[in-house]
Amino acid sequence: MDKPKHESKPTTTVPHVTYDASEIEIKGFCLRLRTVREGRGLTLLDVETNSNGQVAAVALGSYERGDRKISLSKLFEIARIYNMPASEFLVDAGAHIEPGRITVDLRKITQVPISQSAMIVRVFKSIAQQRGDWNGEVLSVRASDLSNLQIFSGLSTHEINTFIAECTVSRSK
Question: Is residue 4 part of a domain?
Fold first, then answer.
């Protein structure tokens, strides 16, 4: 039996650059694709309907499992449906969230132009109750809290950064 000369890896070629996508990166992309959809409360069929049939439910499920390669045009179509930049699918969700702690002004959350602000308030109130350190107005949160919020809410890095810019207060040292 003849053996193949080499195993093929997914590659992206840019002039003068060849990039071999690792299995971990591909799985991360697929997970982000699914997490964003689920975070928005959409089923595969909802996405198909919202795209007017441009993104088939079966195909999207295959993209999310990593069983099928996605074209750039499909990625852009999916990003349009989710109302977010396509680049958000390509970067690890926590990659752009600054490490450390921030202090969130809970009174400002509802004024931030993020549709999920009510959900953010519920999450932060739960964190405060678990820690027992909430005075009703501000809460100190870790970058990992924001990363988890991003994963479970489906918020984009841009939305998280907008939230941080609008709702944090200066910390005295």
Answer: no
Q: Under DSSP, is residue 20 helix (H, G, I), strand (E, B) or coil? A: strand
Within a domain: 2: no
Report the largest interatomic distance among the alpha carbons of the chain, rounded to a whole angstrom: 71
Q: Domain span at residue 43? A: 11-90
Cα(148)–Cα(130) distance, integer angstroms? 16
User: Which CATH number does the domain housing residue 55 bear?
Assistant: 1.10.260.40
Q: CB–CB of 43/17 below 8 Å?
A: no
Fill in the DSSP letter of residue 170: P
Give tens-digit pLDDT for 151-161. 777 777 777 77
Last residue of a domain, one of 90, 112, 144: 90
| CA nearest to 165, candidates 116, 97, 115, 100 | 97
Per-residue pLDDT tens digits for 94-150: 444 555 677 777 777 767 666 666 777 777 777 777 776 656 667 777 777 777 777
Cα separations in angstroms, 109 against 92, 100, 122, 159:
25, 20, 11, 12
pLDDT at 92: 62
